[in-house]
Design a protein that fits this description.
By secondary structure, the protein is of the alpha+beta class. It has 12 helices and 12 strands. The chain has 2 domains: about 5-175, no CATH class; about 190-420, Rhopdopsin 7-helix transmembrane proteins (Up-down Bundle), CATH 1.20.1070.
Length: about 525
């Protein structure tokens, strides 16, 4: 494959640069080793280096591989390319592309000079008995037909001493604050997170307003409280992501603990939302006030497995992911297990809704849209994860999946807010039993068909009112009637018949006006 590729050879001063860099001391007995990777944008991508090493370890070379099959995949990972020697790993490069940087003063463009090791200084070099060292300052710019992953390795083929180098590698994409320190596959993530943070905060405050209205009407059930907590954890997660990326954009430093905490908050939010959907599928707070003992045990086991798999996902990423490979978070045994678990939860969700509708068909106005919308929610993310893992180009996978994951989460939470808004025009509103009645249902009176495990069959208020001969008063749709009406007060029955001092109760000891 012909590649329109060149490496512009540029000597770059790094004296006034505050950039992302990889810094450390490499010491190995091997004669070839990986250093860093970065996704560069054509013309804007820059690699700046500052290295020093004892003369006895010469000649060491920077090797610049790109992501085509005949390049980096042909020499890495080591276990798949174990039979390749150092020379064979160098041979895949085209000398015309200037992919090999000879780090000695024989190669003028490397920016290397041979200097003396002063007594009392450079202890990390003097331990080898050298009195001279190579000090190199230089860089490269990158030009290619698209955004491309580049990999930096160090070699000294045939060396009996191995490799030794103190290095600083600075990798940037132009001078724009939004892009400079970001790899090309991360472009737009910061802007995306800012937009979604604003959206989540907006929905969160609307949810608090709705919660206040539900509380006034004694309809602020546990499932809606879970929904509020999901919003809260997502806001915290996105705030932490913003702190991480803003610091990253400012000076190139990575606060990995902050990013990990953001991921944990996001996984907690997703777990609570998944649990809420299953509980509502089983009718909790809609057709029943509690889950059976066996059901509670099953759900507890499910959430424990969910937590363990997510912990395994984060542990596997930190301990097993090879920095020399571009891997997606879910490319691990725990990640694929989480995909399978989500599929299992979807089937459980379908099963729960089927039996809830079987016993409470009048709740179809809520459960039919609830089923179709959240079935898409359950399967959308696993499908996109599989597409991202096996079919999406690696140079834009991270930024695209960031948008997709946040869009799926936000859409699911926004639709739930719409379905549960306490509006007279909302025929999908699921709740009809007030929170003040749950305690009464725990100890029902003899002969009362209402109990905590099976609420009395009750359609939605708007549906019942629609059958009346009179125009309903939507402003009083969720009001609690006065149990002691004044003398000569008028009571209207559900069939529209009016009677002077008569009073009709709804089975919970409340008057219906």
């Amino acid at each position: 494959m012909n590649l329109i590729l060149g490496l512009s050879i540029v000597f770059l001063s790094i004296t006034c640069v505050s950039s992302l860099y990889r810094e450390g001391i490499l010491r190995t007995t091997e004669d070839w080793d990986f250093l860093a990777r970065f996704c560069f944008v054509s013309e804007l991508g820059r690699l700046r280096y500052e290295v020093e090493y004892p003369k006895s370890f010469a000649v060491q070379n920077f090797l610049l591989y790109y992501d085509e099959p005949g390049q980096w995949p042909a020499v890495y990972p080591p276990d798949e390319a174990v039979k390749k020697t150092c020379l064979e790993k160098e041979s895949v490069m085209n000398p015309a592309n200037h992919q090999i940087v000879n780090l000695t003063n024989d190669y003028i463009w490397s920016g290397c000079v041979l200097t003396s090791v002063e007594e009392g200084e450079d202890n990390h070099i003097s331990v080898f008995g050298d009195d001279t060292k190579f000090v190199c300052k230089g860089g490269r710019s990158f030009r290619s037909v698209r955004e491309r992953w580049w990999y930096v390795a160090l070699s000294n083929c045939g060396s009996k001493s191995g490799l030794y180098m103190k290095y600083k590698l600075t990798l940037t994409n132009g001078d724009n604050w939004w892009k400079k320190h970001f790899s090309a596959d991360q472009f737009g993530i910061l802007q995306t997170d800012i937009i979604f943070l604003c959206l989540f905060v907006l929905v969160f405050f609307i949810s608090l307003y709705v919660a206040d209205k539900l509380k006034e009407k004694q309809l602020f059930h546990t499932t809606y409280k879970m929904y509020i907590s999901v919003q809260f954890f997502y806001v915290i997660s996105l705030l932490c992501y913003l702190i991480f990326y803003i610091e990253y954009a400012n000076d190139g430093t990575e606060a990995e603990n902050m990013k990990l905490f953001a991921r944990i908050m996001q996984s907690v939010a997703d777990g609570i939302f998944l649990l809420m959907l299953i509980l509502m599928g089983k009718g909790y707070t809609i057709t029943r006030g509690r889950i059976s003992h066996s059901g509670t045990v099953k759900i507890a086991v499910l959430m424990c497995v969910y937590a363990v798999l997510y912990a395994g996902l984060f542990f596997y990423e930190s301990s097993q992911f090879d920095p020399g490979e571009v891997l997606y978070l879910y490319e691990s045994p725990a990640g694929f297990a989480l995909i399978g678990l989500r599929g299992f939860c979807w089937f459980w969700f379908i099963y729960a809704i089927f039996f809830t509708l079987k016993h409470y068909p009048e709740k179809g106005s809520f459960y039919y849209p609830f089923f179709f919308i959240y079935s898409v929610w359950f399967i959308a993310l696993p499908i996109m994860i599989l597409v991202a893992t096996f079919g999406m180009p690696k140079w834009w996978r991270e930024k695209v999946m960031n948008v997709i994951e946040l869009t799926i989460a936000f859409t699911g939470q926004l639709i739930f807010l719409i379905l549960t808004r306490p509006s007279a025009a909302n025929s999908n509103f699921p709740y009809h039993v007030r929170t003040s009645q749950i305690g009464v249902l725990n100890t029902p009176e003899e002969g009362n068909p209402n109990n905590i495990d099976n609420f009395m069959h009750h359609g939605y208020g708007i549906n019942a009112l629609a059958r009346d001969q009179y125009r309903p008063n939507f402003t009083e749709m969720f009001t609690v009637g006065n149990p002691n009406p004044p003398p000569y007060s008028s009571t209207i029955y559900s069939n529209g018949v009016q009677n002077g001092n008569s009073e009709k109760t709804n089975g919970f000891g409340e008057s219906i006006h």
